[in-house]
Amino acid sequence: xxxxxxxxxxxxxxxxxxxxxxxxxxxxxxxxxxxxxxxxxxxxxxxxxxxxxxxxxxxxxxxxxxxxxxxxxxxxxxxxxxxxxxxxxxxxxxxxxxxxxxxxxxxxxxxxxxxxxxxxxxxxxxxxxxxxxxxxxxxxxxxxxxxxxxxxxxxxxxxxxxxxxxxxxxxxxxxxxxxxxxxxxxxxxxxxxxxxxxxxxxxxxxxxxxxxxxxxxxxxxxxxxxxxxxxxxxxxxxxxxxxxxxxxxxxxxxxxxxxxxxxxxxxxxxxxxxxxxxxxxxxxxxxxxxxxxxxxxxxxxxxxxxxxxxxxxxxxxxxxxxxxxxxxxxxxxxxx
Length: 336
Hints:
- It is a single chain.
- By secondary structure, the protein is an alpha+beta fold.
- The protein has helices at 11-14, 20-24, 31-46, 118-121, 145-174, 176-197, and strands spanning 85-86, 93-94, 112-113, 201-204, 208-211, 232-235, 242-251, 255-260, 271-279, 284-288, 296-299, 306-317, 324-335.
- Among the domains are: 76-116; 148-197; 203-335, Galactose-binding domain-like (Jelly Rolls, Sandwich).
- The protein contains 6 helices and 13 strands.
- Helix 5 (145-174) packs across helix 6.
- The longest helix is centred in the middle third of the chain and has 30 residues, at 145-174.
- It is elongated.
- Mean pLDDT is 80; it is low at 10-24 and 44-49.
């Protein structure tokens, strides 16, 4: 049998009471201390810092981010329609329902919208209405009784008018009497319309002319003789000059053409500035004139059924050295 080995000393034997051996032996680290040290070293390596260093370690340069490719603006690949969205990057036209450009992928949030031409807005809309994605038609309420009745009357009236026009066209092409009747009424209607839009005027000449004051070589009749090289002149001092024109029968004075002053010596005499007309019916009219020798056309109101008219010169354009007022011509007209 093998010899028995001696048993190891007990704890009490290994640790003498005097403590001489324990004080010389180093203390062994515990398991928890070793794991914390390993974690600290690992975190230092990850951060690129060597344990014990106060400065960070060297870091390798990183690759720069790739530059964004430049998109060149080009013409659209299809014809643009009203409502299309034009990409601000590449210029492509996209349907209104798209959110991103179909060519470059850019967002269409700030894209330009193709407008409808003004002349196309005046034309009636044809075809089915195109709606955006997610758009729903509004709920249409039923028509009111008044609206339904109006629609029914309109449809019946339209059919009746269409039938009458067709029958009238056939009768106009077949019957000569009906064609003559239609032509006569059409011509009369055209004349009536022209009379309203473009009225015609005929001159009205007075049969007697008198003046409250006049110069011997420039009588009042010179204002109605139809010549532009003669004129009526009267002293400016004293009572206001007045011309009186009488007609052979009652007339309607609708318009007048007036030449003020003396044509050949316009600045040498005073010129009428405002005329006050008094009709035989008791009605009156005021006429403002410009200070130039050209013919001036004025419309007259309340001149119906008159047999005479008084022309009062109530204000003047003053001449520098003149002492009398001059008026070249007055022409009265009646509307036909």
